[in-house]
Description:
The complex is a heterodimer. Chain A is mainly alpha-helical. Chain A has 24 helices and no strands. In chain B, the strands form 4 sheets. A 7-stranded mixed sheet of chain B has the order 7-8-9-3-10-11-22, sandwiched between helices. Chain B has a 5-stranded antiparallel sheet with strand order 2-1-4-5-6, covered by helices on one side.
Amino acid sequence: MTIIAAKDLVIPLARAGGRANWLYLPALLVAAVMGLPLLYLGVRALSAGPAIWTWLGRVQTLHLLLRSLGLALAVTFSAIMLAVPLAWLVTRSDLMGRRFWAMVLPLPLVIPSYVGAYLYVSLLSPHGVIPSLLSTWLPLAKWPSIYGFGGAWWVLTLMTYPYVYMSVRAVLSMSDRALEEAARSLGYSPWAVFWRVTLPLLRPALTSGGLLVALYVLRDFGAVSMLRYTTFTRAIYLHYQSSFDRSTAALLALVLVLVTVILLAVQQRLDRLKVAVVAHTPRPSPPVRLGKWQVPALVLVLIVVGLALAVPVGGLIYWLVRGVRVGETLGSLAVPLLNSALAAGLAALVTVVAALPLAILAVRQAGRLSRALVGWSHLGFAVPGVVIALALVFFGANFTPALYQTLTLLIVAYMILFLPQALGVLQAALRLVRRNLEEAAASLGHSPGQVFWRVTLPLITPGLTSAAGLVCLTTLKELPATLLLAPPGFPTLATRVWGAVSEAFFARAAWPALILVGLSSLSMLWFHHNPYTRNEPTS
Amino acid sequence: MSHPLLECRHLYKSYQGKPVVADLSLNLAAGEILAVVGPSGCGKTTTLRLIAGFERPERGEIHMGGKPLVAAGVFIPPEKRGIGMVFQDYALFPHLNVYENIAFGLKGWSKTQVQRRVNELLALVGLQGMARRFPHQLSGGEQQRVALARALAPQPQVLLLDEPFSNLDADLRLKLREEVRTVLKGLNLAALFVTHDQEEALFMGDRLAVMNQGRVHQIGTPEAIFARPVNRFVAEFMGNAYFLPGHVTRQGIQTELGLVRQEVPYPPGSRVDVAVRADDIGLDLQGPPNGKVVGRVFKGLLNLYQVELRSGCVLPSLQPHDYFLPPGQPVHVYLSAQHELACFATESDTSEVVVALPVMQEET
């Protein structure tokens, strides 16, 4: 590994002749820290030898693959079916209150999937609120089960449609209305224009939004676990827990990584093929009149907002009140709150420090090596949290027993997972620092190091704090890696929700869930009002 | 002309309480090209969109071929109007190739009919062999031609063109506007052409409608508008006019450059401004000096001088390309015009004049 890296290093270093070459050292170190555990996971999985092939061909494995892909496909399909009409209604029609709905419809994004799952389970499971309330009218046995495919599909659709909604809305509000008007003037009714012009133009947005949803579902651990639908992530966790079967967990993880990498590659390819939709400062075009469709349209929006937002929030409030009545207090959360804050703060610090050399290289030393390093550091985006955690468990237990089951390993996992976010923000911040400012400092007799400390760093400080804030807030709601890697006796907000729900203590989960939703809203606000991240996709 | 093909009567449209089109009336005869010209924001594109059916006027009516498109209780949607439109940025469908773009409006035609029609149009606009290209593979001029062909394909009764040449560079603009005019005249198609470029309007239009602030100020042949602007705005916008102050006497208008003998629609004693252009002003060194040279722009074929009169009034003067005078040179300035000059009452607030003046419809 190191030998290969050194060989790669020779050419660009010799050619670049730049000033920041020493930055390749920390950057390569970070890349190695990110890559080694996964590499080891691969080695572990493949060391089983030819047995792998029989294992891979087993019915159970194929079944698992079908379940995972089936869920991803179903959720993607239903998310698109929901998102397209909603986005069209708020951008193109005279829907009553469309500005308000446009703001409200993406909000389910602030609910972490496992919190959404928790709330639906707490409401609809056999011990949940609604069946017990209505059991006098409708016997429990007749209730459709929230557990399994149906529940997972239901909850994940409601939590992920905003990804498609936002990309479709962006295209609809930016794209050239003249195209639709041209079609009208050529004799097409509004309905025909939608099928012949609007929808074909949305195809890139639909594929990229849809792939985002599919990836989300494949990576998701919390919701499918709480809803007891076994996909790859849940299977990996279950195999890991039954600790005698860890190489199966490793193999499963490898297959999952393969699937997500294929999906990501497809997405990248499609991104490049994207037809440029001419962006415009649109002329105020009159909205399409809904007429008699006004009421059905409004009902659709109300149902979606109700199910995706009002029901979870209502459930949360219900359990908060119940919890307070039975003596659940915020005070019992002191320890998990402190732990979460400590872990998130450390993760933010480490991630930003690790991302900085990579960001500088990417912006200032564009070349094959720096591009490769940046590509590699997006690993955390491709590899699900549960896999990264598993890789670190293996690696830690075998090579760094001193670190095993310590906070350090957890922080490393967070760094791998959230480095892409920090990198994006830092690159944007660095691009805003005009190069001639640094050149001016150099011409005034400053060494590259001095230029960095006295000019570049002060100018990118807002970017650094943004990146740190973003990582901090995302870390707080991370579940699978925290579950696998948190040291014994180190409860966090996320593991507290998880633990309470798995024991069906729904009221106990309410306070930490509320805090998580609050923090998550904060991170979304941060993300959208931040000059460095406004144009990046939400992840 | 007994029945105009297209008739707009007293159209009114506002955005957020601000009138964009105010009491606009105009007619379009069969086979006629009417160029609507005015500064940006004057409401000309909105006028086009009202006719196309993309906007609803708050008041007023639109009729085509004697049938109402917009009237009390009537609003024909754009797809049922039979009006073609060429958009400013062409609005070619990026997901369809040239052939599919042009065939887009040929609904209900058989495959062979579509094929024949599209090939006919490709030949008409000179794009044979480009049928399989996509819009992003075409140059600006080619996109423009596809947009024209697409709008013409379903044989609309009226064609609307919204600043169709504004995105092209100068050379191409000159070439294309000739082509487009030839095509329209060849088809004897009625067209409404919107532009902010006076020269383009003079070239394209059989008649011109000069607009400002949502109103049509004057409609007429290019020559009539150039020679007899009805108000200061038209004179300045269409004719690059300068204004020479004077006052009305029984013989005509007394100005710093002497008496202009002509009939004046104002009573003796009124103060007026006479609209003059660079070709109406002569210079020589023989006569008694009454001004001096303050500037010269060499235009290649001609020299465009600026002279300042004693009163401080600055006027332009066109001179041969080999006639050179140094800045500061005292000269004799005189009116060389052999035709009547437009004049307008001197007013501190010109906008009032504009509102008070009637719209002159040229009889044809």
